[in-house]
Design brief:
The complex is a heterodimer of chains A (258) and B (636). Chain A is an alpha+beta fold. Chain A has helices at residues 2-33, 37-49, 55-67, 71-84, 89-101, 113-122, 127-150, 154-186, and strands spanning 52-53, 190-193, 198-201, 210-214, 219-226, 229-233, 239-243, 247-249. Chain B contains ten helices and 35 strands. Chain B has a five-stranded mixed sheet with strand order 7-6-17-22-23, with no helix packed on it. In chain B, strands 14, 16, 18, 19 and 20 form a five-stranded antiparallel sheet that branches. Classes of the chains: A alpha+beta (258), B alpha+beta (636). The A-B interface holds A 21, 25, 29, 32, 47, 51-57, 59-60, 63, 66, 90, 93-94, 97-98, 100-101, 104, 127-128, 130-131, 135, 138-139, 142, 145-146, 149-150, 178-179, 182, 206-207, 253 and B 217, 385, 463-464, 466-481, 484-486, 490, 493-494, 497-498, 500-501, 504-505, 507-508.
C-alpha cells in the first residue's frame, strides 16, 4: 500500500512537471502569436533552463529572436536546431535568410571538405534517429552472426556471415557519425558573438595590443579559456584573446552569455 | 724688340692676375668668418634682443663672450660644430645640427640709450678672432626696429637655456628638474585634459633623451607637439631664482572611465654643460695636465672650459579625479560625445530606384573627444538597409587641445518603392563647460523611391520581402537527463547484444568440440533420442503406474523399429521385426538380445505380480537397446 502511494506521488509530480512545461510552451506560443516576442523568448528560455530541449523548441526560440531583431541569438538558436536535428530544413532556410538579408552574405571561411561531408551525411536524419540506427544496426549484426552460427547449410552460413559483416561495417560508420553529432551537441567549440563588438587582443589583458574587432553575429571558434579570457579564432583566421562576455557558446543549453 | 717686350709684359700680367685670383680664392677659404648679428637695431625698454655670433667652418677651441652690460642675458645657447644640440626621442635622433658654430644670446635692456656691444672672441686653429661690434638703441617705448643686416636666426632646436648659474659648481637637483602639469585636476569622463611635461633648468642642456609617453590604458591620448620641432622655452622666476622652462611634451588626454586617474611620472636623460673654473683657455698645458693621455673620449667635452654631465631626471606623477557623466538628463541615445559640437546632414539625392544606394553624410565638428564619437542616423528595418559608415576624422592640434571634424558617410539601400521620410536620431553630447547635455536635432529628410523594373534590383526587393519560416509545435520536448544516446541504457543495450553473441559463440564452440569426437557424439545423440522416446515411461515411474509403464515401454520399442527402419506399424510382428533388423545388418547377438528383451517386456506386461522396483531396471535396459540399435545403424 505504501509502495503504491509512493508510485502515485512520483507519477503526480512527473505529470505536474509535464503540465508545467506544456503550460509554458502554450504561453510562449500565445506570446509569439500576439507579437510579444520578448515574453515568448523568456518562456522558451525558462523551459530550456529547466533542462528540457528539442529541436522544435530551439527553432521557435530562433524565430522569436528574429522577430525581436536579435539576429545573433537567432543564428545561435537555429544552429542549435541543426546540432540536434540536421535534417530540419526550415532552420537551415531561416539561418541562410538571416545571413543573406541581415549580414549580406558575410564572409565565412569555406569549411573543410571533411566538415562538409560530415554535415551532408549527418543531415540525413536527426541525432536521435542516428542513435536508434546504431542500436538497430548493432542488433542486426549480432542476429546475423547468431544465425551464421546456427545454420547447417553452407549457403546460408555464407549469406549470414556476409550480412553480419556488412551490418557491422554500417554500424561502425553510423556510430562515428552519431558520436560526432554528440560532440556537436555537447562539446561544440564554436560560439556566436552577441550584443556588441568584441576586441581581439594579443595577450589576455585589457591593455595589450588589439588585433581587431569582431561584430555580433559572427561565428568564432573557442580554443581555450584562461581566467576571464577566451583564446579564440575568428573566421578570418585571426587568433587572439578576448574578455568573457558577449560570447554565446553553442554547447550552452540556454542562450546565456559567457 | 719693343713688341716682344710688350707681349711678354701682357703675358706676365695675365699670369700674375691668374695667380692672384687663385691666391685670393684660397685665402677666402682660409679666412675665418666670425660675425655678430642682431635681430633689432632699436628696441623698446620692455623688448628683447637676440645677438647671434656665427663662425663658418672653423674648429672652435675657445669662445669669449663680450660684456653685454647694461643688457641682461636671459638665455644663451651654443651650437658648436660637431658638438651641437642633439635631441633623442625613443633612442632615435630627431635633431642634430652639425653645421656652423653659433652662440646665441637673448638680452633684455635695463636702461634707455644707445649702446655698443663690444666684439666677442673666438679661438680657431690657435688664433683668436674678433667679431664685429653691434650698436643698439633702447627707447623708453615704441616698436622694435629690425636690424638692416638681420640674418636668419638659427632655429632654437631644443631647450638649451642657461640662466645665471654660478661659474663652477656640481649639479644641483634644485637647478634642474622635470614637472608634469595639467590644466585641470577634476574632469568628466571624455573631457579633454592637457598634460604638459616641463623642464625647469638653470643649466645649459646640450642633449636630452625622452622616452615615449606612457599614458594609462583607460585614456585616449593625442600628442599636441611635433617631437621633431624645437621645444618652446620661456623664463620663469621661482623662489627668486630665474629658470628657463622648456615644454618638452604636451598631450591631450580623454579619460574613459570614472575614478582617480594617475598620470605616471616620466624620466629623461639629459647632458648638461657646466662651467669648469679650473680651465684656462689661454694655457697651452692645461689640457695636457688634466688629461695627459687623452682618456677623455669627447674632444669637445672641455672646450671653452665647459664640462658635460649626464643626468637622469624624473618628474612627479599626477592624480586627476575623473567624474562620471551626470545621469540626470542623460538622453537615451547619448553615445559618449563630450565637448562642444555643431553638426549638419546632407543627403546626396532626393529620388532613387528601389535597391539602389543613397548616401547620407553627417558632419560633426567642434572641440572635444571627436575620435571617440559615434553616431547612427537611424535604425535599419526590413525596407531600408543601412551599411557600415565610412568615417573620416580631420583633427587639428592646437595649443588649446584637439578640435576638428568627423564625417560619417552612410550608404543605405531602400528596398521598397514609395516616399520615405528619414527621421534622423538627434546627436547628443555633454557640454562640460555648461555641465549639461545638449542635442542637435536634424530635420526629417524625404526620399522618393521609384519601383524598379527587374534585374538584380528586383531580386533585391523580392529578397527583402522574404520572411522566415514559421513556428512549429514542439512535440518532442524531452528532458536532457532522459536523452537515450550515449546514456547508460544505450551502453547496456550494447552489452546485452554482445552477451548474446558471446553466449552463442561459446555454445557453438562446444558443439564443434563434440562433433570432433564422432563416437561420443553419436552416443550422446543416441542417448538423447532414447531419453526423448522414454520421456513418458520416466513419468510413469515417478507416478508408479506399472501397467502404463510396461505398455509404454513396449510401444516405444515397436515404434522405434517402425520409425527407424521405415516399417508400417500394422505390418509389424515378432518375426517380421527380426527380419527387418537382420535386413538392416544389425549384429545377430544384438538382434537376439533385443528379441529376448521384447519377450521379457511382454512377460512383464501380462504377469500377475510385478515389482515396482523392476521398473527402473526395465527402463535402463530399454534405453540401452535403443542406444545399441541406434549406434549400429550409425555404423552402417
Amino acid at each position: 500500500m505504501k509502495k503504491i502511494g509512493v508510485i502515485i506521488a512520483c507519477v503526480s509530480i512527473q505529470l505536474l512537471f509535464s503540465v508545467d512545461i506544456k503550460v509554458m510552451l502554450d504561453s510562449a506560443k500565445d506570446a509569439y502569436k500576439h507579437k510579444k516576442y520578448e515574453q515568448a523568448i523568456k518562456f522558451y528560455q525558462n523551459i530550456l533552463q529547466e533542462g528540457y530541449v528539442s529541436s522544435e523548441l530551439y527553432f521557435n526560440l530562433g524565430n522569436a529572436y528574429y522577430r525581436a531583431k536579435d539576429y545573433p541569438r537567432a543564428l545561435w538558436s537555429y544552429e542549435k536546431v541543426l546540432c540536434w536535428d540536421p535534417s530540419f530544413k526550415d532552420a537551415r532556410y531561416n539561418m541562410d535568410l538571416i545571413n543573406r538579408k541581415i549580414y549580406l552574405n558575410k564572409t565565412i571561411r569555406p569549411p573543410y571538405v571533411s566538415t562538409m561531408l560530415f554535415w551532408k551525411i549527418y543531415g540525413w536524419m536527426s541525432w536521435r534517429s542516428w542513435v536508434i540506427a546504431t542500436i538497430v544496426l548493432f542488433a542486426l549484426s549480432v542476429v546475423f552472426y547468431i544465425l551464421f552460427l546456427l545454420s547447417n547449410s553452407l549457403k546460408k552460413r555464407k549469406w549470414f556471415f556476409y550480412s553480419a559483416l556488412i551490418a557491422l561495417g554500417v554500424w561502425i560508420f553510423s556510430f562515428l557519425i552519431t558520436w560526432l553529432g554528440y560532440r556537436q551537441i555537447y562539446e561544440n567549440r564554436y560560439a556566436y558573438v552577441v550584443d556588441s563588438d568584441i576586441v581581439i587582443r594579443s595577450e589576455p589583458m585589457d591593455g595589450s595590443p588589439a588585433l581587431g574587432t569582431v561584430k555580433p553575429g559572427v561565428k568564432i571558434r573557442l580554443i581555450k579559456t584562461e581566467n576571464q579570457y577566451y583564446y579564440l579564432e575568428t573566421p578570418d583566421g585571426i587568433k587572439g584573446w578576448t574578455r568573457k562576455g558577449n560570447i554565446l557558446p553553442l554547447k550552452a543549453i540556454a542562450p546565456e552569455v559567457q | 724688340m719693343k713688341k716682344i717686350n710688350a707681349m711678354l709684359g701682357i703675358k706676365i700680367g695675365k699670369i700674375s692676375l691668374f695667380i692672384g685670383f687663385i691666391l685670393s680664392f684660397i685665402l677666402s677659404f682660409c679666412q675665418v668668418d666670425f660675425k655678430a648679428t642682431s635681430d633689432y637695431k632699436t628696441i623698446p625698454l620692455n623688448g628683447k634682443l637676440t645677438i647671434t655670433y656665427s663662425l663658418k667652418q672653423g674648429k672652435v677651441e675657445g669662445f669669449q663672450r663680450p660684456d653685454f652690460s647694461p643688457f641682461r642675458v636671459i638665455s644663451q645657447q651654443s651650437l658648436t660644430g660637431t658638438g651641437g644640440m642633439t635631441i633623442i626621442i625613443n633612442n632615435q635622433v630627431v635633431n642634430n645640427d652639425n653645421g656652423d658654430s653659433k652662440w646665441i644670446f637673448t638680452l633684455v635692456p635695463t636702461t634707455v640709450g644707445t649702446f655698443t656691444i663690444p666684439p666677442a672672441k673666438v679661438k680657431v686653429n690657435g688664433k683668436w678672432y674678433e667679431s664685429n661690434a653691434i650698436t643698439v638703441t633702447v627707447l623708453a617705448q615704441g616698436k622694435p626696429q629690425p636690424a638692416t643686416n638681420q640674418q636668419t636666426q638659427v632655429a632654437s632646436p631644443s631647450p638649451s637655456p642657461s640662466a645665471k648659474v654660478s661659474p663652477s659648481q656640481s649639479i644641483d637637483n634644485k637647478n634642474i628638474y622635470l614637472r608634469l602639469s595639467v590644466d585641470k585636476t577634476t574632469a568628466y569622463v571624455g573631457e579633454q585634459i592637457i598634460v604638459r611635461l616641463l623642464l625647469y633648468t638653470r643649466y645649459d642642456v646640450s642633449e636630452y633623451a625622452l622616452e615615449k609617453a606612457s599614458m594609462p590604458s583607460n585614456v585616449w591620448s593625442e600628442e599636441l607637439l611635433d617631437p621633431k620641432s624645437p621645444a618652446k622655452t620661456w623664463e620663469e622666476v621661482i623662489d627668486g631664482k630665474r629658470y628657463v622652462v622648456a615644454e618638452l611634451r604636451k598631450t591631450a588626454i580623454f579619460p574613459q572611465v570614472p575614478g582617480v586617474l594617475t598620470i605616471p611620472s616620466t624620466e629623461i636623460t639629459a647632458v648638461v654643460k657646466i662651467q669648469d673654473n679650473r680651465y684656462d683657455p689661454f694655457s697651452l698645458f692645461d689640457q695636457f695636465f688634466k688629461d695627459p693621455f687623452n682618456f677623455n673620449i669627447d674632444p669637445f667635452a672641455r672646450i671653452g672650459g665647459i664640462k658635460l654631465e649626464k643626468l637622469t631626471i624624473r618628474s612627479n606623477s599626477l592624480n586627476i579625479n575623473v567624474m562620471s557623466l551626470p545621469e540626470k538628463g542623460k538622453p537615451e541615445g547619448f553615445q559618449g560625445a563630450v565637448g562642444n559640437f555643431t553638426a549638419n546632414v546632407e543627403l546626396d539625392t532626393k529620388q532613387i530606384v528601389a535597391g539602389e544606394m543613397a548616401s547620407l553624410k553627417i558632419t560633426i565638428q567642434g572641440k572635444g573627444n571627436l575620435p571617440l564619437i559615434q553616431y547612427t542616423p537611424f535604425e535599419e528595418n526590413d525596407t531600408i538597409q543601412l551599411f557600415e559608415p565610412d568615417v573620416q576624422l580631420n583633427l587639428q592640434k592646437t595649443q588649446a587641445g584637439i578640435e576638428g571634424k568627423k564625417v560619417f558617410t552612410y550608404l543605405f539601400q531602400p528596398n521598397m518603392a514609395g516616399k520615405i521620410t528619414l527621421k534622423l536620431h538627434p546627436f547628443y553630447f555633454f557640454d562640460h563647460v555648461r555641465k549639461q547635455y545638449d542635442s542637435i536635432v536634424f530635420s526629417p529628410l524625404t526620399l522618393v523611391v521609384e519601383p524598379n523594373k527587374g534585374g538584380k534590383v528586383a531580386e533585391a526587393e523580392q529578397k527583402y520581402q522574404e520572411d522566415i519560416r514559421g513556428m512549429v509545435d514542439p512535440v518532442h520536448v524531452f528532458a536532457l537527463k532522459q536523452v537515450f544516446g550515449f546514456s547508460w541504457k544505450y551502453w547496456m543495450l550494447y552489452g546485452l547484444f554482445l552477451s548474446a553473441a558471446v553466449a552463442f559463440t561459446i555454445g557453438y564452440r562446444r558443439r564443434l568440440k563434440l562433433m570432433s569426437n564422432v563416437g561420443e557424439y553419436k552416443m550422446l545423440q543416441a542417448q538423447k533420442m532414447a531419453k526423448k522416446r522414454l520421456k513418458l515411461a520416466e513419468q510413469f515411474i515417478k507416478e508408479k503406474k506399472v501397467d502404463d509403464f510396461y505398455n509404454v515401454i513396449a510401444q516405444t520399442l515397436w515404434l522405434f523399429i517402425t520409425e527407424k527402419f521405415k516399417v508400417p506399424y500394422v505390418e509389424l510382428s515378432r518375426e517380421n521385426a527380426r527380419k527387418v533388423l537382420e535386413d538392416h545388418q544389425i549384429p545377430s547377438e544384438v538382434v537376439n538380445d533385443f528379441m529376448n528383451f521384447l519377450d521379457e517386456v511382454d512377460f512383464y506386461r501380462f504377469a500377475p505380480v510385478r515389482k515396482e522396483a523392476d521398473m527402473q531396471e526395465m527402463y535402463n535396459k530399454t534405453a540401452n537397446f535403443i542406444v545399441a540399435l541406434q549406434l549400429n545403424t550409425y555404423k552402417r
